[in-house]
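Lab notebook, bench 4. Continuing the backlog of folding jobs that were queued last week. Each job is logged with the same field layout so the records can be merged later without manual cleanup. Today's entry covers Replication factor A C-terminal domain-containing protein, a 172-residue chain. Filled in by technician R.K.

JOB TYPE: sequence-to-structure
TARGET: Replication factor A C-terminal domain-containing protein
LENGTH: 172
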Amino acid sequence: MEGDDKPSPQICTVVAIDHTNFSYRVCSVCEKTLPDNASATAATSSSSFSLCKYCNFNNAFNHGPSTSKRLFRILMSIASDTKVFVVVMFDRAARVLFGCSADEFFDFAKLHPFSAETAAKVLEGEMLRVTLSKPKNGNAQHQRVVSVVPLRSGFRPAIETLRELYGVRSVS
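JOB STATUS: finished
OUTPUT FIELD FOLLOWS
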């Protein structure tokens, strides 16, 4: 992976997941990143109204203000056969491991405060086949997980395990 820009597949094990900041807010229309005001987020729902200046200006004649949504951004350490390194996993790949949207996980975590930490522990040690790519942004520090496939035949997404642990029935 060091010398080329092509995505490279790796077999690895999850060593640790940073559970302190697993998502970020974006405009639900254009998906531009929005500021994550901790006080506003704690007081309102994850899909609360948030002003995306671009969409609200361009959609002034449409439905009103755009809403926000959350997307996963997971920082995790993985170990290959030769080294341990930190990667970042965004929404599409993270949904495979978590089994839900970032909004659903955020809402679950509001009701069950230690669920983010528990999810990190549940996923620790999982064997995965990941495809890694170098970041397109020159300022980014970590390789990105483009795709992920759990290798354990009995793999269950983290949200399923959390619902079982907390005694919450699935809403389907």
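OBSERVATION: The helical segments are 38-43, 53-58, 91-98, 102-111, 115-123, 158-166.
SIGNED: R.K.
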